Amino acid sequence: MHVPDGFFTATVSIGAAVVAAAGVGVALRRAKQELDDRTAPMAGLVAAFIFAVQMLNFPVAAGTSGHLLGGALAAILVGPYTAVLCVAVVLLVQGFFFADGGLTALGVNITLMGIVTAAVAWGVFRLITRVARNRAAIVAGSFVAALVSVPVAALAFAVLFAIGGTAPIDAGSVAAAMGGVHVLIGIGEGLITAVTVSSVLAVRPDLVYGARGLAKPLVLRTATGEQVVTAPEEPQAKPIRPFLVGAGIVSLLLAGVVSFFASGSPDGLERVAEDKGFLGQAGDHLFGGFALADYGDVGGIPVGVAGVIGVLITLAVGLGIGYALRRRRKVTT
Amino acid sequence: MGAGHHHQLFRAGDTVVHRLPPQCKLVAVVAFAVVVVATPRERFWVFGGYLLLLAAVAAVARVPARFVLRRMVVELPFVLFAFAIPVIGLGERVTFWGISLSVDGLWASWNILAKATLGVIASILLAATTEPRAMLLGAQRLRMPQLLVQIATFMLRYLDVVLDAMRRMKVARESRGFQARNLRQAPVLAKSAGALFIRSYERGERVHLAMLSRGYTGTMPIYREISADVGQWLTAAALPVAAAAVLFLS
């Protein structure tokens, strides 16, 4: 579901837009390594595929149906950086051409559905396929990666919401509701992603980015004996990337879980206050205070210091990842 | 959401709005959306003013209200969510028709509905008066990275091809008696998605080879130079400037 205009305060929208721009910038550089000069046509077709696959409704239960989000699928099939580009383009097209998702919320949408989803899915996928490299591990890894990426993106949404949502809903219950619903969605997403990856593996294993290096070497059996013609492509060992992605996941999870508990106790307090009838004297809710910040007199732009700090932290994390990737690129090339 | 998309986005016409260079329109719409989002939610009349401004643009561009309304279904999921906020919101509560509602929740609900609706109408008007290809050229003029513009170009060009391939698979599935009843049928759909990916990817490879054989070196030639003069920028700026004027003067 795409976030519309007016859902987040202007500060958070702009902060997320900067993070999204930095992420897409990094992805633009690295995608050229994943796809060399074929990037534009290939990524364009994959973006069209994601757009189409999002229209493929599958039944969940009792008349409700869900549809694939596709971020994890794209990351496994074409690589995480190309996936970020494809999802970003899909969201841009949906925003500008189909009026789906607010234009000022594009940064939030790209950050959550593109960058967070692809990074988490790829990190989880790499962790699993690092342990065991065979077809079953890739299918299982696809399932877990897609399953985990959806609720983590939902929790990231809840964190942004706690920083600068415009609705006075308790951040803990947003996290719980979003997380709960999206675990269910994630199971469906994981199932479809795993079967899709498995069916592509069966026909064109060379197309699955996550399965590079899995192909057996081509062997010529002649009268004189067996002769290896091509060595299997070994994916270069990249120790730092999984670490960064893993650190990202841990921090996201921490942020989600911590905000959950942080808001849990004031909520309980508030309930007690309500019961005891002294709610009027009680101060503002810890996170409600942020949400109320857009009552400010300066043209609706919140001046809440907390909101700004939250955005700055997000920014610092995003820029830090970008900087680390860039430095590493210079070292390797 | 994928369900609400259908294809008649652009309405050909020859009005002032249609003739404006796309880069001016893009900047104007985004600036307008920023002004709308920055407006304090207590100022009801300002939002009415914004709506009048958009109605004026629609009238000048000869986009009928029915066209805009039909395309606004995209917004539905969030409208439903907006209606839920007052019920689950925190803070001071009022009772209205026997339902206990949160005052802040009502404000938030109004805030999201008003701003999202204005944003959606502005995007619909932009897409209705700008050819998709021109919109991408405009984005390129605004220094959007070449690669992103190219990806979006290919996506838009082959979107209908991929969607048609998907439709043919659906016809093939259903003519063989397939019906999606519950999650157990999902693997069939997933295999369709896998086949669709292979077809899209292989088409991409063929397109790339065809482009290489025609001399593609990584950039697309621009046949139509679209430059905007000061007058056109000023015309396009009328919308956001008027919106800002409504905000600050009222």
UniProtKB/TrEMBL annotation, chain A:
Keyword Transport set for record: yes
UniProt-recorded name of the protein: PDGLE domain-containing protein
Main location: membrane
The PDGLE domain, residue ranges: 242-327
One GO biological process term: transition metal ion transport
Keywords: Cell membrane, Membrane, Transmembrane, Transmembrane helix, Transport
Membrane topology: Multi-pass membrane protein
Record's subcellular location: Cell membrane
UniProtKB/TrEMBL annotation, chain B:
GO cellular component: ATP-binding cassette (ABC) transporter complex
Location of this chain's protein in the cell: Cell membrane
A family per Pfam: CbiQ
Membrane spanning residue stretches: 20-38, 44-61, 73-90, 110-130, 142-159, 230-249
InterPro entries listed in its UniProt record: ABC/ECF_trnsptr_transmembrane (IPR003339), ECF_CbiQ (IPR012809), ECF_transporter_component (IPR051611)
Primary location class: membrane
Membrane topology: Multi-pass membrane protein
GO BP annotations, alphabetical order: cobalt ion transport
NCBIfam families in the record: ECF_T_CbiQ
PANTHER family given in the database record: SLL0384 PROTEIN (PTHR34857)
Listed name of the protein: Cobalt ECF transporter T component CbiQ
